[in-house]
Write a structure and sequence with these properties.
alpha/beta; Rossmann fold; 2 domains; 7-stranded mixed β-sheet; 8 helices; 14 strands; 28% strand; elongated
């Protein structure tokens, strides 16, 4: 097996290649003057099993098109199979149709991938696990919960720790981490203005007095929810608040929001590449999760 990387997350692909002790295929990714992507694979891949690594992170549409062009180039060069690692699946938050006239965007992207030369898909902590069923090729949904469990065991006094869900939707996720660590968990209810989407109220259910609170979530987009949740937890007596999240999109001024003194540390996987993160951020390498799944194809 050989690995090839798109432009969205080369460091993760390099880490994965190192763990698996396989080569990274050389590729040129440029743009024509009219802003179209130009892809050229430089190494011979004929008869090879190839794994393509590409996060559908910002710019999302550009990275998806780039992904599809690379897959087509691999097919035309005679690659035997193309498996794909998509650490962050862009459009995964658009997994339902709420109003007439809206597309089921997560399925549209899945259809594009399924209709290409891709033979197998590996995803990480998609917001709705049923998204794996949108694909018509074998799809594996991986969880980062073991990574966060190990990190928590190594870095926190679990006798003083509670897990906090930042909203009702994360209850099941927080409960799983609490169970894996054998600690209690609490919930924060939030209410939004239905017109503006702004959070207007947050209420804590459970006690965090004198505790280390670990706020656990699958994805952080703007940072607003966890920043406000951290304030609530600190005001309710938590001595420390740490934010554990698989995917850090951190759009707009999210990094500034997450730099609040109410959050002691942010612990995030490298599913999405950032040139710079808040100084209180710890990054966990998720390459080992994909390596464990891909070793059978070496």
């Amino acid at each position: 097996m050989k690995l090839i990387s798109g432009s969205s997350n080369l460091p993760l692909a390099q880490s994965l290649a190192k763990i698996l002790n396989v080569e990274l295929v050389k590729i040129e990714i440029n743009k024509y003057a009219n802003d179209e992507k130009r892809i050229k694979i430089l190494d011979d891949v004929q008869g090879e099993n190839i794994t393509l690594v590409q996060s559908f992170s910002s710019p999302v549409d550009e990275h998806i098109i780039e992904f599809l062009l690379i897959v087509d180039a691999l097919e035309r060069m005679g690659a035997r199979n193309v498996n794909v690692v998509i650490p962050w699946y862009g459009y995964s938050l658009q997994d339902k149709v709420f109003e007439d006239g809206e597309p089921l965007s997560a399925k549209v992207v899945a259809n594009l991938i399924s209709a290409s030369y891709v033979k197998r898909v590996f995803l990480l902590d998609v917001h709705n696990t049923s998204i794996a069923g949108f694909f018509s090729v074998p799809t594996h949904h991986l969880s980062a919960i073991d990574l966060f469990t190990k990190y928590a065991q190594d870095n926190y006094d679990l006798s003083q720790t509670v897990i906090a869900s930042p909203d009702f939707g994360g209850l099941k996720r927080a409960g799983k981490l609490a169970e894996s660590l054998n600690v209690d968990w609490v919930n924060i209810d939030k209410q939004r203005n239905l017109k503006t989407g702004e959070i207007i109220q947050m209420e804590l259910h459970g006690s965090v007095e004198g505790k280390i609170a670990l706020v656990f979530d699958d994805v952080s987009v703007s940072g607003s929810t966890v920043a406000q949740a951290a304030e609530v937890l600190k005001k309710s007596g938590a001595k420390e608040v740490h934010f554990l999240v698989t995917h850090g999109l951190f759009v707009g001024d999210a990094k500034e929001k997450l730099s609040t003194p109410a959050i002691n540390t942010i612990v995030v996987t490298n599913s999405i590449y950032h040139q710079q993160l808040p100084t209180n951020t710890k990054v966990i390498d998720c390459a080992k999760l994909f390596a464990a799944q891909l070793k059978d194809w070496i």
